[in-house]
Amino acid sequence: MISALAGVVALTGLATAGTAQAATGCAVTYTTNDWPGGFTAAVTIQNLGNAINGWTLGFTFPDSSQKVDTGWSATFSQSGQNVTATNVDYNAAIATGTSVSIGFNGTWSGSNSQPAAFTLNGVTCTGTTTNPSPTPSPTPSPSPTRSPSPSPSPSPTRSPSPSPSPSPTSGKPTVAADGTGTYRTVQAAIDAVASGNSSRKVITIKPGTYREIVTIPANKPYITLQGLGSSPGDVVIVNSHYAGGNGGTFNSATAFVSGHDSALTNLTISNDYVEDGTTVNQQAVALNLNADRAVLSNVRLLGDQDTFLINDSARTYVKSSYIEGTVDFIFGGGTAVLNDCDIYEKRSSGAPITAARTDAAKTYGFLVYRSRITGATGNTTQLGRPWGPSAQVLYRESSLSSTIKTSQPWTDMSGNSWKNARFFEYKNTGAGATVNSNRPQMSDSQAATYTPQKYLAGSDGWNPIG
What we know:
This protein is mainly beta. The chain has three helices and 35 strands.
């Protein structure tokens, strides 16, 4: 399943983490990304004692102004400064030596210091963890470590986006691992772009494998990453992080893209962590997207669990691309149109493809449009499940292969009923596109207002489709 942390476009604080000293049997790492008036917290619980089949984590905020607003991967309750987090079904068991990751968004008006101690099943944690080095917070993102972004909606007065069209492929590349470019790493090229740039900066990347973590921060908009190969498989940006070992799902990504009007074209973003069947938190994000008005064209996104995170702040148009994974591998609270894409469920036992967390106030979540859905086995794959109660997903005019679990293609998640979510299909074809009482179909009149352009227009009339 998923854990997710909030996507934050612009953060002013630092990511901090602390050591909970307090019962034989557990260690806790608590990490926050802060902004004025709010924060996102990622909490990793490591079991150092006997295996447990259900857990409750307790802690006390040091400041009475701190409040839990929305949480994920646990059920949160708060009384005064005291907070309790109880497991949800998919992460109830914690084997000895393994971890689970949970998180929440909160508000505050005080110092926002971390809790001093934690209790697991009523026992104070005495294990310790090493403090990660604080880092500036443009690498926010939830997922199953996942989450709604507190960033304000983009201003309707924002100037038109410079075109993300590809630049010429001749001449010296911006990035080449062999030293024939201006920079050897993708991140070095991004770092060289001035903060607050107002014109498009195209970073061309020579074919090769770039094993690094790439971050386009919120203060660097209008950046294009363009692979120079003959196919997206020729340029591969890859890493191997997973939630249980890297501070939660939101920190596990290979690429963090937060600058608005970012564009990725003709390349692969991959997280090649391999699920081992024993680790509790195996979420491993390839692309963590916080950027509004992002365009992905001819891109491959490769991973297992939680491949592509689309945070609340994001609107994205994904064109002629390939996305693969195992569980909830397209997820988040943002808005996305996947047009002419190939989506592949690679696990033989199947699983849900999407886990949307669309806010109830948003009309549009995920639109899978004129795309192709395939999988490793027949009658095993689900179209999605609601990570949030108001999740919105539409599969429209797409080819659904026999991999789709035809009798029940939607399923519940963490107490959220798929029947209460905004799940629809419209004019799909293929062996997996049968119609029954468990498959809500959108009417023609409804479909007229659920087009790709209407999903993406927002308040500024954004139209990347042309």
